[in-house]
Amino acid sequence: MEHVAMNTLIWEAAVVLWTIGFVEMGIGKNNPRDFGWVLVTGGLMETVALGFLIAAGDMFGATAAAAFILLLWILGAPLVMKEEPSQIQTHAIWFTGVYFLLASIFLGSLGVVWHTIAFGLLVPITWFLAIATYTGTRGFAKVAGFLSIVDSIVFLAIAFSSAIGKPLA
Asked: Would you say residue 168 lies in a domain?
């Protein structure tokens, strides 16, 4: 059960990062409120995975899910409500990046290369998103968008390989 819940979390991260990447890069017609609903829906789906991870006793997976959930709600809620993110929300994005930094260091110490790369890319993504919000500079958001697309491919590779029974180390 734990493996299925974690793979669901990784798959959801891939899809949401792909969406964040294309929106932040300005690709396609993007309605901010629709984008907010995608993020909030992703947060709800991650919450379901969180419940299974808690039930399985996977502390690291549950903490990772909680960080993703916080990030999705913090990014999505203001868009749904047609508001600008507050400084508290921007700080939450920044500190979620700190968690991803610590998680990537932990995963690196275990020798889990693909997961280390996936979590490691989340650090500059969250920090660039926070800086873009602090400064109002779209350039930082575009860099975060590009990195999100790259990270979504890494998460997709992890999820797919795990789904076919050949998990990447």
From this structure: no
The residue written with tokens 């299974």 in the block is 52
Q: How far is CA 12 from the centre of its chain?
A: 9
Secondary structure element (H or E) that encloses residue 162, with its range: helix 138-163
For tokens 């959930």, the residue is 69
Domain-located, residue 169: no
132-142 residue pLDDT tens: 888 888 899 99
Mean pLDDT along residues 10-25: 89
DSSP state of 118: H
User: What CATH number should be reported for the domain holding residue 19?
Assistant: 1.25.40
No. of helices (H) and no. of strands (E), the chain: 6, 0
- Number of domains observed in the structure of the chain: 1
